[in-house]
Amino acid sequence: MxxxxxxxxxxxxxxxxxxxxxxxxxxxxxxxxxxxxxADRLAGRTVIPYGELPGFPSSKVExxxxxxxxxxxxxxxxxxxxxxxxxxxxxxxxxxxxxxRALCAAGCNTLIITNAAGGIDHALRPGDLVILxxxxxxxxxxxxxxENDPAxxxxxxxxxxAYDLALRAIAARAGNELGLTLREGVYACSPGPAYxxxxxxxxxxxxxADLAGMSTAPEVIAARHxxxxxxGLSCVTNxxxxxTNQKLSHAEVTETAGRVRETFIALLDRILAHILALGARxxxx
Length: 285
Ligand code: HPA
Fold this sequence. Notes:
Rossmann fold, single chain, alpha/beta, binds hypoxanthine, 9 strands
């Protein structure tokens, strides 16, 4: 067996060994900056610190806890990443996406990937939640760079439907039911860690981006490589640089994420309820 497949299967095995007997989560959650609290309210929680799992890097960024949390929400079993690592922390992309790959290897064929982002589109306001329709990977790197392991995924994965249409419809419906008008948007992933300059934000808008961030795109590429379906959700924590006179800060990012915490929880709960109703389908690849 190929080395990556073998390492992923070993990681999946170690995860399963820590979960309650009979656990078989099909839905994975990646909880971004300030959004990790969702994992704290899962029912029947099992918490595994990343440091106890093979290959899982630990994040030093404030607002990113660093636990894999298993439990139930809306009656559906989930495996949640409470915190993630970023390219700007110095990890290579294979390391950045390792936890997402491990979730997929452990059986999650549907991933809900969340992040905090700056709003580029003029209609967006801090506190808005946005359904991702697509992304721009501006890292000039890919988690798939290097030798491909065909036992994990194809050399040239298709990215036409990177953000699953059915899951986007579910998210929109869940939003409607809560009285939220959720826009869709294109997420531009930049290397960071400095926020964009106003000129860069104008460039990103010209390129078709609605949201600016520093995560998600590599994870989505790795998840699609492994055939998982992906829903992406951004919390607009601030307007991107230059849109107003206000300066950007990580404190504002976590403060806004905290302010929409209850809305975010309600939305995720409802999305999961709809996914449960739909039944755990096989990945659409
Ligand atoms: N730019 C990039 N990443 C971000 C931002 C931003 O404005 N806000 C939160 N994450």
